[in-house]
Design a protein that fits this description.
alpha/beta; TIM Barrel; 8-stranded parallel beta barrel; two-stranded antiparallel sheet; 11 helices
Length: 331
């Protein structure tokens, strides 16, 4: 029996990537994050990051995403690339694609109980400071370099000095763009699509939060994809809310998603990521796994057949979703 046209068949592993937001620092907002890191010493966390990176590599993932504010994520990633020989200085091999972001500074001092974990600053001085820091940590240039959580309020998309510097990086071969967060992601992205420096838009990649609970940016992502931009999805499992932890009172896995997971013998996160992979405009969907076990669960997305129409009713109002997310505790 053939699969009905409304159903999306399992995805290719090349469209999955690994984000290091939860691997480079001891504190993060994912549900149960503290339990994933029994030892938060620098050496232990480097070892765990490398173990997850090794598992991702062995599974066929080739896109890896970090940021200056992810603690030591760039350093962990750069040292792993060198140790494994996957990417020599000044040249990618084996199809590896490395992304990083600027605009937030990590200030938690390797503590989970810090009053403030990261500070945003989207000015030219921060860009000029963080770009060489990224080069040093990765021992070379990233392939993708993004404004971290750009918003209309920071004015970064109207900052001429920033845009001209990003245009220079784009001219050197780095693909530059932005990541987005918050209920106005679509507005920010559409403004980014209008940016011009000397008649051309230097931006050509977006990393956005999209999941079955918060899909509101979808139409704008489709527009970006149609314009030739690379589209990367982050937070596909809603910071753990759409994982097995969401079935134990910590989150809110919708019954419809849980039912598909049971029927196809996968975990809820696999269905959530499969829904993201089913979007025709999604080039890469990031796993945010903190352990090799979580990564293995996420990889179940590659064997899920999903009908996107079954999940459209799960969408929440964007403001409600982001209020809930802002209330998640760093742990």
């Amino acid at each position: 029996m053939s699969t009905p046209p409304s159903f999306v068949r399992p995805a290719d592993v090349s469209r999955l990537g690994l984000g290091l937001a939860a691997l480079g620092r001891p504190g993060y907002i994912n549900l149960g994050h503290a339990a994933d890191l029994p030892d938060t010493s620098l050496d232990a966390m480097r070892e765990q990051a490398w173990a997850v990176l090794d598992a991702a590599w062995d599974a066929g993932l080739r896109t890896y995403d970090a940021a200056r504010s992810y603690g030591l994520a760039e350093e962990f990633l750069g040292s792993w690339l060198r140790a494994r020989g996957h990417r020599p200085l000044n040249g990618a091999v084996d199809g590896v694609r490395i992304g990083s972001k600027w605009g937030y500074t990590y200030v938690a001092g390797w503590r989970t109980d810090a009053a403030t974990h990261e500070v945003k600053s989207h000015d030219a001085a921060t860009l000029e400071r963080q770009w060489p820091e990224t080069l040093a940590a990765l021992d070379g240039s990233p392939d993708l370099y993004l404004i971290h959580s750009a918003t209309l309020e920071t004015g970064v998309l109207d900052n001429r000095a920033v845009l001209e510097r990003l245009a220079a990086l784009a001219a050197s071969g780095v693909r530059v763009g932005l990541s987005t967060s918050g209920p106005r992601q679509a507005d920010t992205l559409r403004r980014a699509l209008e940016v011009r420096v000397d008649g051309a838009n230097p931006l050509s990649v977006v990393q956005a939060t999209w999941n079955v609970l918060e899909p509101s940016v979808g139409p704008a992502l489709a527009e970006a994809h149609a314009a030739g931009w690379m589209v990367v999805i982050k937070e596909g499992v809603a910071n753990g809310r759409l994982t097995t932890r969401g079935l134990t009172g910590q989150g809110d896995v919708p019954p419809a998603l849980a039912a598909i997971a049971r029927e196809q013998d996968v975990t809820p996160d696999a269905v959530a990521l499969a829904a993201a992979l089913a979007q025709p405009w999604a080039d890469v969907v990031l796993s945010g796994a903190t352990t090799t076990g979580q990564l293995a669960d996420n990889l179940g997305a590659l064997r899920v057949t999903v009908d996107p129409a079954e999940l459209t009713a799960l969408a929440q109002l964007p403001d409600a979703y982001w209020i809930h997310r802002s209330g998640l505790a760093w742990n």
